[in-house]
Specification:
two-stranded antiparallel ribbon, 15 helices
Amino acid sequence: MAEILADPALWLPLTFAGLMGLSILIYVVLDGFDLGVGLLFPFADEAEKDRMVASIGPFWDANETWLVMAVGLLLVAFPVAHGAILTALYLPVAVMLVGLILRGVAFEFRVKAPLRYKRGWDFAFFLGSALTSLSQGFMLGMYIMGLDATSATLAFSAVTAVFLTVGYSFIGAAWLIGKTEGALQDKAVEWARGGIWGLLLGIGAISVASPLVSPRIFERWFSWPEILWLSPLPILSAALLLALWGALRRLPSADDRGAWVPFSCGTGLFVLAFFGMAYSFYPYVVPEQLTIFEAASAPESLMIILVGAIVVMPMIAAYTVLAYVVFRGKATDLRYD
């Protein structure tokens, strides 16, 4: 540890890898639930759609800021990796951007456009959410497969795209359980009970594929004593799944007790899955091709960038926390006047 701290060429890449990973994790959890809300639009009536949009209205644009932060850190701290990843994933990245733009436009126009166009903008909001979720799942699958485009890796990436999309719909339903009440909350509980299987299958598929793709990951997972370091993750995941299923069986409750348990457990599962991937792929930023040390910018450049990150990231975090504190409680009608 002392050797790492004494050498900026070692601790600076590790620091930026940690900051980038933290940004990705925050984005997946926060933007995951508002993407999930959009994915559930076809199952709700008009009044419920308005309340669903109101539940994410104060948060969705702040949530996406973390994606910008993560991509920015990848670009400036690991430019070689940025080029390799974006080159391999150019098409799904373009689809994701189209989806994000469509969501943003639809979010505003569904409220401000004439009423006869509202249904069309509702569909656009769902479509943007679906494109974004599917493209992110496809990129995750390709990343796990080492960015190698073959028929097998493309098929696995397509499956991952579906599972991540269902996982987002689950976390969106869990968010609605906490933010809504009445008939919509009842529906959200049913949506969450269905979506939990997609989340479980998605985590299972990634867990099975990761060690099979890489002998190095297989060795890290199943050799002794390394298996001990990984063992808490599946144990905690199983405990969270049991707690989640028990909470969903008890909901909805008359006093709204436990309404936030599904979202908390779902968030915990995403966090554990993320740490499992980080443990598996470290120290590679491009699987089996580039380590974070090989892809990092010069230490002098990273030191300057670190100053900016130390200023910017706490500001984004403070703004995010402020939004969630100010707009806590049950969702009310979203108004622009």
